[in-house]
Amino acid sequence: MRQYCTMKRIITFSLKYSPRYYGIFSNNYLTNFVNIGNSINNRLNHFFVQYFNTSRTDDINSNLLVTSPRDTIINNKYILDPEDYDSGIYNLKQTLKIQIMSLPYLSEEIAHSYLNLAMAEHQNILLLDNAKEHYMASYNIFCKIKGAQSLEALNALTNFAVVLRDLGNINDSVIVLEKVLATKKATNVNPKLLLDTLNNLGVIMHETKNYEKALRYYKEALQLIGDSNNFICEFVALLYFNIGCAYRESGSISEAFEYMKISKDICNKLDNTLELKNRIQLELNNLGQTIL
């Protein structure tokens, strides 16, 4: 039986702070995917994120306590439905095969195709090793044609780090993400492009119960965001939620309640956030009982 990673709704937001929501993901050099084989338009005007979760509930009446975060941001383009998965993987492999036969190996087209295949494989936990191999192939090509400090290379490397985490290689995942973060800072990229890396590092520290480091990464991301009233999107709500969870799990209940409340207030200003609001409400209910 094929097993799929549980995926949450995709979020996109503009660098101009204008939230936009799509049914599928595009990363910051790819536009919306409609059908496999559509042309790729290279654009850098938006920062896009997607996050996975392996422990969530939509029922606010559930007695289960959400032990988030299990949410990791990755730059994912292909969201294949289970019934289309085999044909989707086949088409991506065929596209790559044709390109390798007809194009110079060190080309953007082949680098993108390796990346697209890896992102599709990343949906299936039985293909995580394949995804790891193809992320690295994409990264190596981008390094040679764009440079190791290019956003394209760093995006592929970020996804590589995430799949390492999914394979249980936590230490190497952290090393790679810290390398990505240091490179982004050294090249003075737009600060908003640090958010995914900081949250990913925070999530890993959180999952390994290193709450102090997790909070440090989360709060550094918050500092980059600045006034949350001017930067409203579900990612920001998730960030406050993750901080609340870290405080709660480290025993700081009042701080946890404060950040959960802010997260809920942000969600109330947005559409299509029922799932996250339910998770927040469940936490608030449990925190309220603890405070009482």
TrEMBL record:
PROSITE patterns hit by this protein: TPR, TPR_REGION
Sections of the chain in a coiled coil: none
Tagged with keyword Ribonucleoprotein: no
InterPro entries in UniProt: TPR-like_helical_dom_sf (IPR011990), TPR_rpt (IPR019734)
Pfam families given in the database record: TPR_10, TPR_12
Keywords (A to Z) from UniProt: Repeat, TPR repeat
Repeat in keyword set: yes
Spans of repeat TPR: 195-228
Protein name: Tetratricopeptide repeat family protein, putative
Organism: Babesia microti (strain RI)
